[in-house]
C-alpha cells in the first residue's frame, strides 16, 4: 500500500511556494480559502452591524451621519449574503462534497480555482468603494428609481451593479461545478438514495443558483445601462417600470434565502446522525423537502411586494405558495427532532449549536409564515419585525449550523480538535447574545419602528428594545470572537484529531485529517447510506479486493452514472494552472475600467481576458484540461 | 383655532411614550391585522413549545443515559410522525390561516369601496404633500373625519415611498408613474403617527407625518378654513416678514396661497402655524422654527432647503410672518 500512497502523492502533488499558491486546483485548499476569506468578510459585516447597533442604541444618537449609516447597512446586507454566507457555504461544499462522495476533486478543478479568485476580486472590488467613501448606499435590494443616477449620483451604485455581476460569475461557475460533481463523480455504489443529505443540500443550492442568479445579473446589467448609457428600463417617466426591478431582484432574492439555508440545513443533517449516534430518521422526507423548498422557493417572490398595490388575485396565489413553502421546512424540523429524541446525544459543541439552531430557526420559521398572511405582511413589512424575522432565519438557520460545522469539521480540515471550553463558552454567548440582539426587534417592529432608519424619535417606546438589542449584539460579537480565537489557537496547538474523532457515518471520516491531496488512497466502492459505519473495509483505504480503485496510473478519478453510480469512465483530472488567476486579474481590471468609464482600458483588459482564456484552454498533449 | 390646543395636548401625550403600535388599533384597517396577529401568535407559540419540548426531552434523555454507542435500530413511528407533524397538521393549520387571511384581505379591500372623500397624498424626498378635494393643500399632516373610510390616492414625485400609519392601516407604496389607492378610518378623534416605510435615501428616518382625526363637523370646519387663502398679517413685524419672504429665496420653493408665492418645490405654508410639527420632526414652536430655518441640515441633513441667507432681523421678521399664517 505504501507504494500506492507514494505514487499518488507524486501524481497529485502541487508546486510549492508562490507558483503553487496561485496555481492550486486542490478543492480542499480552495475550500479553505473560501472559508477563511468568507470569515474575514463575516468579521467586516459584523463590525458594520455593531456600528449600526451603536447608532440605534438610543433615540437621536449622532454617532454616525445618515450617509455613513446608509452605506453601512447596505454593505452589511451585501457582505453577509454575497461575501460571507454564500462563500463560506461554498467553502464547506468545496471541501466536503468531493470527500463525502469519494471523489478525488471537483469535476472542474480549474473552474473551481477561478471561482475563488473571482470571489476574492469581487469582494476587494466591492470593499474598495469604502476607500473613496462611496460604498453602495441604497440597501442590498437597491430599489429603483432611488438607485438611478438622478437620486444616487456618484459611484456607489455602480460599485453595487458591477460588483454583483462580477461576483455572479464566481457563484454561477461554482454552482455548475457542484451539479456536475455531484451527479457524475460519486464513488461507485453511492446510488441516488445513498447520497449524504449535505450533498443534497449543496445540489439543491446549486440548481437554485443556476436558475436564480441570472436574473440578478440581468437586473444589474440593465441598471448599469440605465445609469451610464441613458436606457430607461426602470424609468416610469419614459415608459419603464420601477416595479420591474423589484420583480427581477426578488425572483432572485427570495430563492437567495434558500440558497443560504438549504446547504446550512444540509450541514445540520450531516452533524445530527453522528452526534445523536443513530441514522437520520426520514432520509427520504428530508431530501424531498430540500428539493421541494428549492422548487417552491421560486414561486413566492411577490410576497416581498405585497405593499406595492398588486391585484388581489396575484397576491392570493403568492400567499398560498408562501404558506406552502413552510411545509418542507417543517418536515425537516420534525425529522431532525425525531432523530434527536431517539438518539444518544453527544452534548459537545457541534450538538449544542445544532440544538440552538433548531430552536432559533423555528422562531424565524413561524414568523416567516406570518408574512404569508397578506394583511399582516402589509402591516409589518419594512418594519423591525422583518429585521428580527430574517435574522432568526439566516443567523438561526445558517450561522448556527456553520458554527456547528466549524467544531464538527474543523478537526478534519486542520487535523486538530477545537477546544471544548472555548466552544461551550462561545455557544452560550452566541445563543443568548443573538436572542437578546434580535428578539426585542420583533416588539419594536410591532410598536411601529420602521427598518433602515438611521435615527428615531424618543418617547415612542422603542428605546428600551433597541438598547437591549445593541447589548445583545455585543454579546454575540464576543461569542464570535471566542470562536475565532479558539480556531487560531487550536489549529496550531489543539489535540490531534485522528481520522475519525466523532465516529461519523460519511466518507470524509474514512481518510486522514487533513486528507492528502488525492483524498483517498483508493476510490472506494460504497455499499451503504452510512458507509463509514457499515464498512470497516474503508479504514486506511479500501483494498482492491473490497472494491477500492487505486487509480494510481495517472492524475485520474472515476466518473459514474447519475442514478446508480456505476463506474463509466476513468476521468483525467486537470493539473494545477495559473491561468484562472491571470484571467481573474484581467477581469478585475476590466470591471474597474467599466467603473471608472475607462473604456480603452476596458478594451485592453477584455483582450487580456481572452488571452488568459486561450492560455487556459491551450492544447497540451492528448487530454484537454479544464 | 380651538382644536389646536387639544392637538398639542395629544402631542404631549405622544411624547410621554405612546408607541404607534400595530397592536393598539384605532381603526378597522389595523383591527384586521390585529385579528390575524393573535391567533398566529398563539399557533406559533404552540409550535415553538412543541419543538422546544422535544429538544429538552432529547437533552434530558442524553443526560440520564450515558450510553453513546451507535444505535442502528429503526424506529417505526419515525416516518409516520414526520408525515403527521411535518406535513398533515401543518397543511391543515396553514390552510385555515390562509382562508382567514384572505377574508381579512377582502375586508380591507371592500371597506374602502364606499369611501366618499378623496385625499391625494404625494410623497416627496422627504415630506408629504396633502391635497384635498376642495383644493386645500397642506403638508406632513392629513386631516380626516372620524367614523368613515376616507379614500387616499397615493403617488410619488421622485422615488418609492410607503404610507404607513401603524395604528390605523397597513402600508401602501407610493410608486413613480403609478397611483395606488388606500383608505383610512379612525374610530376616535386623535393624532396618529405615520412614517415612510420604504427606504428612500438620506432622510428616510425623518419622513414623518401625522393623521389628525376630527369629529365630522369639526373636520368640515377645519377643511373650510384650510382652503382659505392666507390673510395679510396685522402686525407690522409680520408684514415686513411677508415682504422679505416674497423677495427672498423662500418664495422660490414655498407657496402661500393668496400671495405671489406660488412655487411647489417645498411644502405649502398657507396655514403653517396651525400645524403641529415643523417638517414632521420638531414640535411647531418659535425656537424650533428658528433652529430649522437657520439651518435645516442640522435637523434633517440632506434636505433640499438651504440654510437661510437672511440676517438675524430679517429672519425674525420672517418667523413672525410664518407664525401669523393661521
Task: Describe the protein in words.
The complex is a heterodimer of chains A (626) and B (326). With 626 residues, chain A is mainly α. A two-stranded antiparallel sheet of chain A has the order 1-2. The mean pLDDT of chain A is 96. Chain B is an alpha+beta fold. Helix content of chain B is 43%, strand content 18%. A five-stranded mixed sheet of chain B has the order 3-2-1-5-8, covered by helices on one side. A five-stranded mixed sheet of chain B has the order 4-10-9-6-7. In chain B, α5 packs across α9. Chain B is elongated, with a radius of gyration of 27 Å. The N terminus of chain B is likely disordered. Chains A and B meet through α4, α8, α10, α11 and α12 of A and α2, α3 and β9 of B.
What's the total number of strands of chain B? 12
Helix vs. strand class of chain A: mainly alpha
In N-to-C order, the SSE pattern of chain B is: HHHEEEEEEEEEEHHHEEHHH
Structural domain tally of chain B: 3
Q: Examine the secondary-structure arrangement and name the CATH architecture of the largest domain in chain B.
A: Sandwich
- Note the quaternary state here: heterodimer
Q: Major beta sheet of chain A, specifics?
A: 2 strands, antiparallel
Topology of this structure?
The complex is a heterodimer of chains A (626) and B (326).
Chain A: H1 2-12, H2 17-23, H3 27-55, H4 66-100, H5 109-128, H6 156-184, H7 197-229, H8 242-276, H9 283-296, H10 312-324, H11 326-342, H12 349-372, H13 374-380, H14 384-414, H15 420-446, H16 463-493, H17 531-534, E1 556-560, E2 567-572, H18 579-595, H19 599-617
Antiparallel strand pairs in A: 1-2
Chain B: H1 2-15, H2 28-64, H3 78-111, E1 118-124, E2 127-132, E3 137-139, E4 141-145, E5 150-156, E6 161-164, E7 172-174, E8 180-184, E9 190-196, E10 208-214, H4 216-227, H5 236-247, H6 250-253, E11 277-278, E12 282-283, H7 286-294, H8 296-299, H9 312-324
Parallel strand pairs in B: 1-5, 4-10
Antiparallel strand pairs in B: 1-2, 2-3, 5-8, 6-7, 6-9, 9-10, 11-12
Amino acid at each position: 500500500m505504501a507504494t500506492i500512497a507514494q505514487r499518488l502523492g507524486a501524481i497529485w502533488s502541487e508546486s510549492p511556494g508562490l507558483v503553487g499558491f496561485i496555481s492550486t486546483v486542490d478543492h480542499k485548499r480552495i475550500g479553505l480559502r473560501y472559508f477563511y476569506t468568507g470569515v474575514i468578510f463575516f468579521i467586516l459585516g459584523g463590525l458594520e452591524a455593531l456600528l449600526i447597533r451603536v447608532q440605534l442604541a438610543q433615540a437621536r444618537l449622532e454617532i454616525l451621519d445618515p450617509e455613513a449609516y446608509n452605506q453601512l447597512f447596505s454593505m452589511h446586507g451585501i457582505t453577509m449574503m454575497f461575501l460571507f454566507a454564500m462563500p463560506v457555504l461554498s467553502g464547506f461544499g468545496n471541501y466536503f462534497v468531493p470527500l463525502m462522495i469519494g471523489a478525488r476533486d471537483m469535476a472542474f478543478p480549474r473552474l473551481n480555482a477561478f471561482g475563488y479568485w473571482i470571489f476574492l476580486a469581487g469582494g476587494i472590488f466591492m470593499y474598495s468603494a469604502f476607500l473613496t467613501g462611496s460604498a453602495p448606499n441604497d440597501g442590498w435590494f437597491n430599489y429603483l428609481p432611488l438607485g438611478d443616477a438622478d437620486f444616487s449620483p456618484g459611484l456607489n451604485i455602480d460599485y453595487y451593479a458591477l460588483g454583483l455581476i462580477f461576483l455572479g460569475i464566481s457563484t454561477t461557475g461554482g454552482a455548475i461545478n457542484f451539479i456536475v460533481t455531484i451527479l457524475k463523480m460519486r464513488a461507485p455504489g453511492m446510488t441516488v438514495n445513498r447520497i449524504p443529505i449535505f450533498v443534497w443540500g449543496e445540489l439543491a443550492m446549486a440548481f437554485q443558483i443556476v436558475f436564480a442568479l441570472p436574473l440578478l445579473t440581468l437586473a444589474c446589467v440593465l441598471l448599469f445601462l440605465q445609469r451610464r448609457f441613458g436606457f430607461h428600463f426602470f424609468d416610469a417617466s419614459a415608459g419603464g417600470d420601477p416595479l420591474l426591478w423589484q420583480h427581477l431582484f426578488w425572483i432572485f432574492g427570495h430563492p437567495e434565502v434558500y440558497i443560504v439555508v438549504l446547504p446550512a440545513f444540509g450541514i445540520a443533517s450531516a452533524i445530527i446522525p453522528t452526534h445523536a449516534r443513530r441514522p437520520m430518521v426520514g432520509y427520504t422526507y428530508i431530501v424531498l423537502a430540500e428539493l421541494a423548498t428549492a422548487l417552491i422557493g421560486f414561486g413566492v417572490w411577490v410576497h416581498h411586494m405585497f405593499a406595492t398595490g398588486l391585484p388581489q388575485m396575484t397576491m392570493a396565489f403568492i400567499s398560498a405558495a408562501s404558506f406552502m413553502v413552510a411545509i418542507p421546512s417543517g418536515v425537516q424540523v420534525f425529522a431532525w427532532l425525531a432523530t434527536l429524541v431517539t438518539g444518544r446525544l453527544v452534548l459537545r459543541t457541534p450538538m449544542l449549536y445544532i440544538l440552538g439552531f433548531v430552536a432559533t430557526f423555528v422562531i424565524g420559521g413561524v414568523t416567516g409564515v406570518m408574512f404569508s398572511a397578506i394583511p399582516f405582511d402589509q402591516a409589518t413589512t419594512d418594519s423591525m419585525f422583518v429585521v428580527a424575522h430574517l435574522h432568526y432565519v439566516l443567523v438561526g438557520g445558517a450561522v448556527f449550523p456553520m458554527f456547528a460545522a466549524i467544531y464538527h469539521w474543523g478537526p478534519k480540515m486542520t487535523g486538530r480538535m477545537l477546544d471544548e471550553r472555548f466552544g461551550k463558552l462561545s455557544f452560550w454567548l452566541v445563543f443568548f447574545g443573538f436572542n437578546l440582539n434580535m428578539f426585542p426587534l420583533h416588539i419594536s417592529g410591532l410598536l411601529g419602528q420602521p427598518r433602515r432608519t438611521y435615527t428615531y424619535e424618543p418617547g415612542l417606546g422603542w428605546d428600551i428594545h433597541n438598547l437591549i438589542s445593541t447589548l445583545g449584539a455585543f454579546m454575540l460579537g464576543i461569542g464570535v470572537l471566542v470562536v475565532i480565537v479558539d480556531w487560531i489557537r487550536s489549529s496550531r496547538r489543539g489535540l490531534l484529531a485522528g481520522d475519525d474523532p466523532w465516529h461519523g457515518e460519511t466518507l470524509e471520516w474514512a481518510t486522514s485529517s487533513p486528507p492528502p491531496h488525492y483524498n483517498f488512497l483508493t476510490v472506494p466502492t460504497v455499499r451503504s447510506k452510512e458507509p463509514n459505519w457499515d464498512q470497516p473495509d474503508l479504514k486506511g483505504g479500501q483494498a482492491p479486493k473490497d472494491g477500492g480503485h487505486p487509480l494510481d496510473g495517472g492524475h485520474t478519478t472515476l466518473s459514474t452514472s447519475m442514478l446508480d453510480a456505476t463506474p463509466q469512465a476513468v476521468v483525467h483530472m486537470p493539473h494545477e494552472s495559473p491561468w484562472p488567476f491571470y484571467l481573474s486579474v484581467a477581469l478585475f481590471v476590466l470591471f474597474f475600467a467599466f467603473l471608472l468609464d475607462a473604456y480603452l482600458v476596458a478594451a485592453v483588459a477584455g483582450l487580456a481576458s481572452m488571452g488568459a482564456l486561450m492560455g487556459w484552454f491551450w492544447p497540451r498533449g492528448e487530454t484537454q484540461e479544464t | 383655532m380651538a382644536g389646536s390646543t387639544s392637538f398639542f395636548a395629544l402631542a404631549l401625550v405622544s411624547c410621554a411614550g405612546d408607541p404607534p403600535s400595530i397592536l393598539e388599533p384605532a381603526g378597522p384597517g389595523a383591527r384586521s391585522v390585529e385579528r390575524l396577529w393573535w391567533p398566529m401568535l398563539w399557533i406559533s407559540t404552540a409550535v415553538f413549545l412543541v419543538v422546544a419540548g422535544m429538544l429538552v426531552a432529547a437533552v434530558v434523555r442524553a443526560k440520564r443515559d450515558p450510553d453513546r454507542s451507535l444505535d442502528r435500530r429503526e424506529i417505526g413511528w419515525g416516518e409516520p410522525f414526520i408525515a403527521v407533524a411535518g406535513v398533515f397538521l401543518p397543511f391543515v393549520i396553514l390552510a385555515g390561516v390562509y382562508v382567514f387571511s384572505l377574508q381579512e384581505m377582502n375586508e380591507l379591500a371592500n371597506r374602502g369601496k364606499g369611501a366618499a372623500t378623496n385625499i391625494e397624498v404625494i410623497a416627496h424626498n422627504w415630506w408629504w404633500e396633502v391635497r384635498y378635494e376642495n383644493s386645500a393643500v397642506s403638508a406632513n399632516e392629513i386631516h380626516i373625519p372620524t367614523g368613515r373610510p376616507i379614500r387616499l390616492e397615493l403617488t410619488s414625485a421622485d422615488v418609492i415611498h410607503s404610507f404607513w400609519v401603524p395604528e390605523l392601516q397597513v402600508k401602501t407604496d407610493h410608486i413613480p408613474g403609478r397611483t395606488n389607492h388606500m383608505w383610512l378610518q379612525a374610530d376616535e378623534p386623535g393624532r396618529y403617527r405615520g412614517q415612510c416605510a420604504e427606504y428612500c435615501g438620506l432622510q428616510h428616518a425623518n419622513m414623518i407625518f401625522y393623521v389628525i382625526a376630527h369629529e365630522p363637523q369639526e373636520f368640515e370646519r377645519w377643511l373650510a378654513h384650510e382652503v382659505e387663502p392666507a390673510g395679510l398679517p396685522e402686525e407690522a413685524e409680520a408684514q415686513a416678514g411677508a415682504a422679505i419672504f416674497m423677495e427672498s429665496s423662500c418664495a422660490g420653493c414655498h407657496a402661500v396661497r393668496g400671495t405671489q408665492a406660488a412655487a411647489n418645490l417645498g411644502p405649502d405654508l398657507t396655514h403653517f402655524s396651525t400645524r403641529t410639527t415643523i417638517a414632521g420632526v420638531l414640535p411647531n414652536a418659535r425656537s424650533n422654527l428658528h433652529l430649522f430655518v437657520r439651518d435645516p441640515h442640522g435637523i434633517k441633513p440632506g434636505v433640499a432647503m438651504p440654510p437661510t441667507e437672511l440676517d438675524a432681523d430679517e429672519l425674525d421678521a420672517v418667523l413672525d410672518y410664518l407664525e401669523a399664517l393661521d
